[in-house]
Fold each of these.
Amino acid sequence: MNIRRMTLPLLLLVASVPLAADEHVITTSSHRLTEIANGVYLAQTTAPLFNSNSLVIVNEDDVVVVDSHITPDKARELIQSIRAITSNPITTLINTHFHYDHAHGNQVFGDDVQIIGHEYTRMKMAGTPLQETQYVLATRRNKETIANVTTMLENTTDEERRKGLKNYLDLALTQEKSWAEIQPVAPDTTLDHRMTIFRGSREIQLHFLGRAHTGGDVTVYLPAEKLAFTGDMMLQGPSFLGDGYVDEWVQTLENLKGLPFETIVPGHGNPFTDRDLIDHVQAYYEDLWGKVAKMHEQDIPVGDAAREVDMTNHASTLGVRRKGVDPQAVGRIYARLEGSD
């Protein structure tokens, strides 16, 4: 089996966009820190692992971090990397939503760091987050990866290939160990619709614009910098829909347009300035909802609907060139049509 053709859950699947030549980039042993505004850094893991972006906001006297990464180990690496740009203490952590890749590093920030999130995020994180479907599936896929790569190693004699497989296996085993350490920590401070915090001369607004990727997505907006960190509510294309409110997402994105931002920093991938992308994603969600709703009316099973739904009419705007969508997206739309919250 070719490792390049395997479904490897550790790999970051979001395409990277080249950074502008004039951007200030600091690379540590674990992270790339790109200064995207004065004192505002996009923090991305350099290892070939699935992980969230984090936003690091360096103020006169402190640091505010948005999203804590996928595991305690990755959060520790993030905190260590922040020391490469400032000695200011981290006082505040903001969770854009509850998903494991954005919030399961919370525990390493310490009791003296305030954690802010939406009320829905606190409810989810204070409940049974290690039983959430996406976390369970991710840990299961990692175990499968370990087993598959171990078998490939046993059946491979080429030394160069063995080296690549061994490196990848080490990453998966490290991830397994770090996941075992997770003790979820919920936000201790919550918002319903809006909160504003001030750190020195910096104004940081937190907005709940409506249900979308989850029931409690928070957008972090810096008005002076005209920058919005959207988490997974708005990527450069469709987001994961398995926990989403596809029927409400279009309006939520319309509300996002009301913020006078110039740059969006997404929860995965690199920043972008093309506001037309919001229109294209709205059109995709509206179209997907309509097509799946018709299949629901015809009692087409979820798996069949997922294979048959055709979204390739969005090829020119979002690069959708293959028929079919994620079965979890179809299952979630069916559940919403049947009254599930």
Note: Residues 285-337 form one domain.
Amino acid sequence: MSDASSVTESVLGHHLGAFVSKDLDQLLSDFTEESILIGPDATYKGLDAIRGFFTPFLEGFTQEMIDALNLQRQDVQGEYAYIVWDLGDIAPLGTDTFHVVDGKIMMQSFAVYMPG
């Protein structure tokens, strides 16, 4: 595994751990003021905007969702990571793509399908 892949995998592991533990400060430590998070409805740039996205998202992330979380696929190639996940019937498909530079997430894209 290349050095870049090792760093990306480490950042991704930290990010996922912070997400599952709902630790907003640790989650935000993976980003910078230049980071961009692209979601289905908006693009968020900088720590304040990304905090504004994750705060209500984590508040709505229930223990039932945490228990149902299933990481289907993880692929790390250098500075890039891609994950596919689901929350069972709650959200049968979710995906994130990351670009990690110098140990920080510079870009994350996110999409999830949550039926009715």
Note: The CA atoms of residues 4 and 78 lie 5 Å apart.
Amino acid sequence: MNYLAYQSSDLLNGNGLRSTLFVSGCSHGCVGCYNVDSWNPKEGQLFTEEHENNIIADLNDPKINRQGLSLSGGDPLYKRNRRQILQLVKRVKSECANKDIWLWTGFTKEECLADSLMSEIISYVDVLVDGKFEQDKYDPNLKWKGSSNQNVIFMSKI
């Protein structure tokens, strides 16, 4: 898996102060996507164990109270990303007490649940923002999503 950027302290992608990983790779091809460069899975840098360790350390840093981890992209659930994303979300839930995980994907929740690996990944996710971006449904006033067809799903309430 490759990633385009990592922000150790981010206030835009989810609730509260967060760490955010932007992965490479997306197969949805949404018209009007703000990050077309993220579609290519070979863009960016290789995500290594060292990067994963840095994320865990940032989330556990006692000097900065981060609420959790946000996973965006590209698409964290792009087929090539799934194994490493699963490893990362498992580790966050195991090693980072009281931290939540937010994940943005172009897949719907139903599509995720129909695939065993994606279903396992979202079982560790606290907030799932699902659905492809649809330019004709774009609304800059929406919170945490770009178009009105997308859903912000608080998984713990399901």
Note: The domain at 2-157 is CATH 3.20.20.70 (TIM Barrel).
